Amino acid sequence: MNTVILMGRLTRDPEVRYTQGEKSMAVARYTLAVDRRRATDSGGQNTDFISCVAFDRAGEFAEKYFRQGQRVLVRGRIQTGSYVNRDGQKIYTTDVVILEQEFADSRRDGGGGRRPEPAQDDGFMNIPDGVEDDGLPF
After folding, report:
1. Between β-strands 45-55 and 71-84, what pairing exists: parallel, antiparallel or unpaired?
2. Tens digit of pLDDT for each residue in 88-112?
3. Which domains does the chain have, with CATH numbers?
4. d(CA 31, CA 62)
5. How many CA atoms lie within 13 A of 49 on its CB side?
6. Please, how many CA atoms are within 13 Å of residue 64, restricted to the half-sphere of its CB?
7. Could you tell me the CA-to-CA distances from 74 to 44, 58, 65, 77, 84 in Å, in that order?
């Protein structure tokens, strides 16, 4: 099984290109900055920069809605590859091919997501009048 789920912030706006040929397709590339906790007693975090690629409709979505600094949640698969650069050196690549992507923050937080807003600033909902304490399950 080859499945990866990541949550991180976009390091820059997605770079989008379109394939040539009879059926043109969007290919969006972006990098996620993903925090990783250190395994030492001192605590703290390290950050991994993960290359992602989204094809077709997912690529179009990334082009239209994703912006630098937004926190996003992605699910995909790891794909490795290699190519020879202009200097004749073999370069190895590792990308996450995106299968699903969504905003991880609400619109209020600048993420553009679709989470409902809390009723009050403190996040608690008022209990309506007429509800007795013994009727509550807790």
Report:
1. unpaired
2. 999 999 999 999 999 998 766 554 4
3. 4-135 (2.40.50.140)
4. 12
5. 7
6. 9
7. 24, 11, 14, 10, 29
Separation CA 51–CA 65 (nearest Å)? 18
Joined tokens for residue 13: 């706006």
Q: How far apart are CA 129 and CA 132, in angstroms?
A: 8
Residue 90 — left, alpha, or beta (φ > 0 → left; ψ -120 to 50 → alpha)?
A: beta
Query: Which residue shows structure tokens 């040539």?
Result: 20
DSSP 10: E
Mean pLDDT of the chain: 83
